[in-house]
Design goal:
Layout (H helix, E strand, L loop, with lengths): L1 H31 L4 E2 L19 H7 L1 E8 L4 E4 L4 E3 L8 E6 L4 H17 L5 E6 L5 H11 L7 E2 L5 H4 L4 E2 L1 E5 L4 E7 L7 H11 L5 H4 L2
Parallel strand pairs: 5-6, 6-7
Antiparallel strand pairs: 1-8, 2-10, 3-4, 3-7, 5-9, 9-10
Length: about 220
Amino acid sequence: MQQSDRLMRRRILIAGAALFAAVVAAVALYRYGTGFATGPSALQPVAVVPATENSRSAASEEFAFSFFDRPHPVPELRFADSQGRNLSLQDLRHQPILLNIWATWCVPCRKEMPALDRLQAKLGASQLLVLPLSIDRQGLPVVKKFYDDLGLTSLGIYIDRSGQAAGVLNAVGVPTTLLIDRDGQEIGRKIGPAAWDSAAVIALLRKHLGIPASAQEASP
């Protein structure tokens, strides 16, 4: 009888844990609407559901982003560029920043990086600095190879040497993207990949980051 009771309790615990995991997954899917690789210090790729960003309207793109009622301070964050120079977000103030936390092993990151590269080419760093911050533990060599393999030419290379960026920024998975205004404060974020160079997303970035429209976009 005791063994039967223990077996029953074990089955109840397992069922409860499974139900809790299902609820968490459902909430994340409802809130963010896209897949991403979980765990700020994860070392292996995680299977994800491909996002259908190209088919989204401007309204659904905005739903996929989380914008704050008031700007939030961004924690102190230090990193290195491709030349090994130490930088911080404070060094890059007075310009809008799209800070993308990513890794070479992240499947959705690999999908969206070319779009980020095209976004940077379209807008230029003077309008918006796209800052892809790699959390790869192998550092610069694997990131350079990744850029070469994908033919990324407009994006700069930035490395999180501390291994703490994802935790400091509360990035629950990769890719996670923070939108930072000219005052160095976060105004919103996106969990999971996006079609960053699409007209809908560029319009969204211009609206929330106060980036002027180009002459071509402003013309009727």
